[in-house]
Every structure is written in C-alpha cells, then in structure tokens.
Specification:
heterodimer; A: alpha+beta; Creatine Kinase, Chain A, domain 2; eight-stranded antiparallel sheet; two-stranded antiparallel ribbon; 47% helix; B: mainly alpha; Wheat Germ Agglutinin (Isolectin 2), domain 1; 3 domains; 7 helices; 2 strands; binds zinc ion
Chain lengths: 355, 170
Amino acid sequence: MAAHDLITGQCRWMEGSGPHAEIVITSRVRLARNLAGRPFPHLLDDKGKQGVLAAVASAAGAGAVAQRYGKLTAIQVSELPALDRQILVEKHLISPQHAQPGGGKALLVNGDGSIGIMVNEEDHLRIQCLLPALQLHEAWRTATGVDDALEETLDYAFDEKHGFLTACPTNVGTGLRASVMVHLPGLVMTKQIGRVLSALSQVGLAVRGFYGEGTEAVGNLFQVSNQITLGQGEEEILGNLSAVVKQIIDQERSAREALVREARVQLADRVGRAYGTLQNAHILNSQEALALMSELRLGLDLKLVKGVDTRVLNELLVAIQPASLQGAAGREMQPFERDVHRAQVVRNRLVTIQS
Amino acid sequence: MVCQECKQKPASVHITQIINNDKTKISLCEDCARAYQHQLGFNFEPNFSIHKFLANLLDHEPVVGKPARASGEQCPQCGLTYSQFGQLGRLGCDRCYQVFAGRLEPLLRRIHGGFAHGGKVPRRTGGAIRVKQELRRLKAELQQLVAQEEFERAAKVRDTIRQLEQQLQA
Ligand SMILES: [Zn+2]
Ligand SMILES: [Zn+2]
C-alpha cells in the first residue's frame, strides 16, 4: 500500500456500523509513548528523529506486530505535499500538529487506517486505534496489543511513579487519551446540550466540537474524551468514559423520541428540506453542508427519510473538507470554487444512491 | 473582558474545566477560539495552547524544596532547565521527570488530581514494578478482607503476598 492509496481510499471508521452507530460516529484510543534515554521530539534534530523512526519502524516490522496486526506501511509524512498531509488530518489518521512542516515525521499505518502509529509527533510514538461506533474497549485492546508487541523490542521511557513519560505532563501516566465522537442533534434541538456538556466537564471529561469553525460544534458533532491520565488505571478511565457516553446516548435517544412525538411534522419538514437542499444545491459552504448532513443523518435514524447509507454520510464528512475536495479535484481552489465543487460532490453522492 | 490569548479583542468564548474541584477558566475572542478549534478540531485532542496554559500554571506554582538558582536545575541528559520547561510547557526527556520530580508534583496534582501511576506497566522491562503494583493491590484487598472478617480468604491472599515478596527479593 502506498501513501496514495491511503489518501484516496476509505477508512474503517467510515463503515458506520456497530454498537450505537446511530449516535456514535467513532471511538478512538491513543497511547503516548517515548523511547528511553533520548530527548523528546521537540528537542531532537533531524538525525535524532530519523534514529527514532528507524527504531520504531524496525520494531513494527518485527514479528510480533506484523503477525498479530498485519503489515504496517511507513509513510514519510514530512515528505508529502502540504495538501496530502492535510487530507490525512481530515481523515483523522494524523493530528493537525503532525501535519505541520518539519522533518522526521512519519506514520505507520495498516490498510484500513484503524491502526496507526504517529512517529515524532509531540512524543516519539502515538499509537492510535480508530474504530466506527461505540467500540472503546475493542479500540483499547488493539492499541494495548500493538503497544505490547512494540515493547518486545523497544525500551520505553517509564518510571514507577509517573508511569509512561511524555513530553507534556498532561499525558503522563497511562499516556491514554480515549475519545468518542457523538452526533447529538436531539440534545441541540431540545436545548439540553449546554446542561449535558457542562455536566461532563465536572467529571473530568473534555468536550470539543469536531468541525470547529467558530465556537459552536458544527454538524452537532461532539468529541468527548478523558482529561486525566495519571492516577487512574486504563480500565477505570475507559469505564468512566463508556459509562458517561452511554448516558449521553440515552439522553439523545429520549430527546429524539420526544421530538418525533411532539413535533413529527415539523421535524419531517426540516429533514426533507435538508435532504432536498443537499440533493439540489449548487453552492454549499462547509458549515451549511455539515448542518444539513446532520439533519439528514437524524432523519434517517428516525425513518423520516430513507435510501442513504450511514457510510455515505461518513465518507462525505471527509470528502467535503477543503483538502479532500482539492485533492480529489487534483488542483487548488479558491473558497467560492470549493463551495461549488462541494455541492457537486454532495449532489453526486446523494443522487446516485437514491432509491 | 479581554481575550487571554491575543490580549486585544474582547473575549466572547469561555471555557471552563473542573477537575477534582479545581476550576480553570479560559476566555478567548472569537478569532482565537476559532484558531484553537481549528488547531484541534480534527484531532479530537485537547491540546489547546496547553503549553501556554501550563506555563501560566507554573507561574503561580509555589516553589517546592529549595529554590533553583539560574544555573542550577538542569537535566543532565537533555540540558533542559526548569525555566525552559516553564516557557515550553514540555519536558525534554525521560530524565527530566527525575530531575524536576519535586517541582512537578504540585503541577501533576493540579492537572490530574493524583500523581502516582496506577495503570499499565511495560511487560518486558517492568517485571519488578508489576510485582510491586500487584503487591499494593493485594495488600489493600487483605485489609478489606480482614475488616470483613473473611479470614480464610485473607489467609490465602497473605500467602500470595509472601510468595510475591520472596520473588521480589530473589
Ligand atoms: Zn484573541
Ligand atoms: Zn531531560
């Protein structure tokens, strides 16, 4: 698999099926790890970073990882054009920080993008497992398994008191950041979202908008993740997050039910208009597209419309992003041109699968 | 209120985080908030000027232990000084955690609420640490069993503890 396939191909998380897929888009587990006895990436020169990459690549190529998790392909992120780096960000395969210019950055990744290791991001290694729907424990099992397999040949920076040592003290300990992306149109429409989100911050969880242009979470997508990495065990962190996410799912579900019960016609009208606009618009900015896609996604769950696969909506989430649009078109575009092109991409996808 | 990031435009976005009753508030203007969101939006990762934010925390951190002289506290492995850590918000290498341990402690408490690792230990290199972790867990269990007067089970746990302690000394 070349970098090109990864940039143009689809990812596992886009499948859109699994537990609570009607509300949970993705589950992600990320482990921050560093090699013992070497400066962290921000203090390494190019040669030092290449040394880290060589060590990690050889550990990843060694028996255990490949045997259990398949072959990981090394992509020299630093050598990709800026647009391609940004596409990897839009697909959630690397972080925005990893797409910044600068040498020595790499990504080791499996064929469907569900397992990735960012090398020389803020830490020497960021092991990531990204799955569709609510599969936090599955994601954890995979990430920790990859971690164990790498550790068979790598010496990690670890001490008894602080756990896994990371460049930023906010990650030290387990080095674990688990996050769940949820779609909460019901809680937004019923104006309960503020209450829910502020309750989350009180139990040590962080909430972010996913497609954050502006301060509102565009497209009603929210990302919930743990803040604390030191003191608690991994199972405890994941258990807390899972429990909270399940509560959010319940609340979103009852909000959706209430909407259908109290305002079925208004809701059906709104969903129908959203679908109609997406199928017929010739200019769509990304904010509008995400908002309409959110309503369509809600309408599909509530069976107010049919004929669109969740997978298509997930693919579109990425396809309408600026770099992905320009990458697919093979050229750079001005904002207005992008809006026109975005509308065309959406029209094509939603028309061809219409029943 | 003025934006804490650019210190120019009025702040309209307020982010509050509460961890173990420690409340942290950040107020930003819309542009900075957008930059912030943009910065993390896709990664689902709370990395927002976290380094700057940490640097701010450090300013208010009471100095623990003896005050560092300008030339004093420096990591022998990577050369980072504590004041550089304050500016960068990042440590330089694994040794830094030992060198600055005393000064990191209040910071780690503040970020995480605790400061002793309670999670995974590396399989290959962490042998003794894993045993110690297991011992801590068993000793807590033993106390609980004794309190509940479950003496038979307590005796079994005590045997396991002895075994592990011998293993550790060997
Ligand atoms: Zn500002
Ligand atoms: Zn150091």
